[in-house]
Amino acid sequence: MSKKVVTYTINGKRYDVLVESHETLSHVIRDKLGLTGTKIGCEQGNCGACTVLVNDKAVLSCITPAMRFEGAKITTIEGLAENSELHRLQELFVEKGAIQCGFCTPGMVMTALDFVSKNENPTYDEVRDALSGNVCRCTGYKKVIQAVVEYAKEIAESKNKSRRIEVIKVESNRKSKHTVGIGRPYIEATKKVKGAADYADDIKIKNALHCKLLRSIYPHARILKIDTSKAEKLQGVRAVTIGSELPEKFGVLPISHDETSMAIDKTRYIGEIVAAVAADTEEIASEALKLIEVKYQPIKEFLTIDESLQDVGENERIHIYGKFNNNVHKKAELRFGDQQQGLKDADLVSKMSFEFEGINHGFTEPHAATAWWDENGLTIIAATQVPHYLHRSLAKVMDVPLSRVRVIKPYVGGGFGGKSDPFPHEMIISHLARKAGMPVKIRFSREEVFITNHGRHPSKMTLQLGVSKEGMFKVLDADIAIDGRAYGSFGVVTSYYNGVLLQAPYDIDNFGFRTFRVYTNKPQCGAMRGHGAVNSRFATETLIDDAAHKLKIDPVEIRLKNFLSPNTLTVGQYRITSNGSRESLLKVAEQSEWKRRHGKLEFGHGLGVACGFFISGSALPIIRNELPQSVVYLKVDFDGRVLITSGASDIGQGSDTMLAMIVAEVLGISMDKIFVLAADTLLTPVDMGSYSSRVTFMAGNAAKDAAEKLKKEILYTVAQRKGVFPEELNLSDERVFSNDNSVNLNWMEAIDILTAGRGAVSISGKYISPKLGGDFKGSGAGLSPSYSFGACCAEVKVDTETGQVKILQVWGAHDCGKAINPLAVEGQLEGSWHMGLGQALTEQMKYYKGLLVNNNFLDYKIPTSRDTPDIKCNIIETNDPEGPFGAKECGEGALHPIIPAITNAIFNAVGVRITKLPIMPEDILAGLKKKKQAEEVAG
Amino acid sequence: MEKNQLYHKAKNVEDAMAFAIAHSEDFRFIAGGTDLNVNRFHGTIQTSCLIDIHEIEELRQIKGEGNDLHIGALVTLDELMQNPIIKKEFPALVEAAHSVATPMLRKTATIGGNILCENRCIFFNQSEWWREAVGYCLKCEGEICIATGGTKACFSKFVSDTAPVLICLDAKIIIADNGKQEIVKLEDIYTGDGLKPNKLSNTALVLSIVVPLNKTYKCVFQKLRPRESVDFTSLTTAVSVDETGRVKVAVGGVDPKPIVTEGKSLEERDELIKYVMKKSRVVDNDYYTRPYRRLMIDVLLKRCFKKLSSEEN
After folding, report:
1. DSSP, res B138
2. Is any Cβ of chain B less than 8 angstroms from the Cβ of A65?
3. Could you tell me the fold of the domain covering A459-620+776-932?
4. How do residues A75-87 score in pLDDT, each as one tens digit?
């Protein structure tokens, strides 16, 4: 009895399914019945994405045997909407902006529905508790909880009135003439909340084979022999491949093409891919892996920064290039002003050393992709943030012209930098698909996601800040070492960002840094939200707090004294345009009642503050070329609909909606006349992708440029037909009209004129950043056409017996120039602060002899809804002169100030300075003990 | 390559037992399955035969019998938390149940499963590939314990949060095995050997947990963990005092079994804590370090005593 036909009623429909004895319910629902709205995020019951209702009770379908529920009534996310009307809870998720990447959404909705059905009128905290088994990495939970609380309230009210809930609909066509600046749900939010949005693993390509990867079990070892013959003979195996078949190197930066698809001569970390199998089923592929014999010869591994900075002697280096006999990958150093003079001028020098563990993006959707070859060459559907770089890398590794590669990005369940490199598995399935002559699919386990890593670099650094007794910053020096691990990834950029991004938001004339990036035998680090500067920002803000404390100056005051002004140059010649540092800091100080409360709370209870800033996209492309950084096409045809075609990748941050809003605003039309086609390298123009917080600024500007050109074209054509000057015509509110009303056309009439005799009109817009920066080597690092600024204040309570920290409240403010979509901006900010809380409190990648120990959502500790305090979100608008409608970035910079705000609050609470992340309770206890001893000696 | 896999939904205890005996060489009972299925996913538990007992109605009741409350082994933690008698009589048990895993898991996880939850260690609860890479520890057929760097004993930690409270409440469990039933004190089933943490034979079934209702206990509970949800315990402490002043202490998360001790009054606090510290075999197999967890035994237990003392007065 290995298999049996089991009957279920799912979403009101009867299914008779052939179920394997030990198959999980999620496997049946997703893979056999194609109900892919139910998501798989961890396979171990820790993330809640797989939640369904069985006989009206919430069940984690990924750890439940399908056989158990023979005859049961099952409801999945697809079963909630009735007659094309969303369930009220779904509507509220949409309205409140509770949906970003949307991957956790189905599970959240099902969990919440089950909870509310059994708990009448719950409090905010009860809802917070109820959702604490559902991981969301995008929203910081705030909007999700708000949606559920409101739903519960409506239910309770409707019960009191003993009538059906009257559904209050969102107005789809707002009466305002404007789109920009008015918060709205994502254009695809409805699709996501219904479970109808397809992510990479949800897409079934006919006859696709399944790929599994064999990974190294040694951190540093020569590969003496790989024997795949037994695996090849296994029935159902269609192709097997090893590293030597794909010798071409790749990497996201042209200067760091140091990785092959699979290890060839040696492995450089535990988990590196050494062979791959494509087979009829995942089970056969897994079985085949066991038949591959690999003979390794372990060699001396390098696992720490300190070791890798040293000469390796007789041992073998991790990579052979580089002038010196060590494992240093990159040394970046820049100095401005006169640091020695600055130290002399300072009345106080605060100097400390810091240590940071590496952390992981923790997006909820595991990597997945499907590749196939046909008469058009290679097509790959992949969960990626940067289709363009994947396009280039695939062409190089597969050795085919760029014109024979097509990369399609489906809906992506979060990225945060972790899906921005081209990945080995994407090369491998493309190769296997060519070899087997069939499509090949892959999906990662959560363990594989963690092993693939590319997360934030662990680092060690010593910084010194010199301050005059008046509190003016005289000098800042940073000596930094970052652990890049096995390969280059974005590491050269990271090396610079650690230093250069300290030259703002404060005015410091004497500034310098030196960063070493080393290789070690662990999974490579790369870019992660707040790229490069999060840890060194933490260090700097800690020193500022220390200096303020020693000089008896208020931490808010000392920062206000030193801020750069708007419209200025930094010491390293960054052009600062709009600058909302002051407004941001004053806002959080006011809301936290800083003046009244700071320094006046009882022992163990404290307030802390910190600031930050970030780039709005890099002014220089990664691959030097003369293409614009972003191109957007618009096409309008006889039907009046405007098609936006863009290479920008929406990974949950809302960029598709942003583009549509900008075009709607310029053309004065409603959003339902706009369609966005994005991130398909065959159909869409080149965009560098979603990294370095560039999309709103660059793709947004390109969309605006295109829309303005189209507007001009419409007005010009109408003017010609009507015999007026184009300057006399207006385009707004879906009409083309002259001031004297002699011309008064609705949109369709205007489009009839536009398309008469020529058909559809296509127009291209672009963004190229201005020439910026100084004339010195390294001047390009951190250059951006605009910078965001922000501040955070945190209130904490420290348990002085256990050393545990409870964050009571966070106030955050971020200058995003102009919020194109305020609802989305809030979501980005709240999500950034939430992610920062994780790095501060519980997140770290722990290794044992090079082997990642906490490779799942149980042991890698992302804050749950219960660990997330109330977050007060403030959008500061400064209207950047070059941003689209004044907009700047809001996706990464907000993360910078939150971590030091928390640790500065801890200092304020108990007088213990945190110099290591994550904050460990025992470090606080040690600090308290040391302080007590010092006090005893002193007193 | 495909092994004939079986899945049997037991109708009642006899049916479950009979099926178990018929497949005694290789089978596992599955109740909620929240622990078992994750261990199967990791390959630390492998079996071709699952006997699903979760629908056995007789094991899903909470009922008073004489001076005892019988909690069926298959009562879910969620149901337990909602039960009016338990809420009234044993608030510490509700607190303990609430601290287990996540709301979602508690809807499926059972009280019987929780007290028999497989011991955990960061070097053991890993995938097959991972365990191969680390060199297999003692608990999965390796030669040595990795957490301690080479001892020949396994120190995987006992992680049930409800068991320490139940022990403090003098709970007993009714076990059915080989056609016989026996009733034993809960603390007596734990061996202290990380390799085989409890004495139950593989065919044994816990039917119910029996908690005396006629003693006026006060019981308090504390749990140390990095996050306020999801996490297994790094340290669980429970302390009770009955109407005679007798004190019972049970501590989990710091040894392969719960550390249990008793005293005549709350005055004996320091000796009791000292005993627990001495008996706990804490090793580095947790988010928190060994010294920190040891230190916290003292802190959390003192908190429990303080709370009991203040409630007494």
Report:
1. G
2. yes
3. Aldehyde Oxidoreductase; domain 4 (3.30.365)
4. 999 999 998 899 9
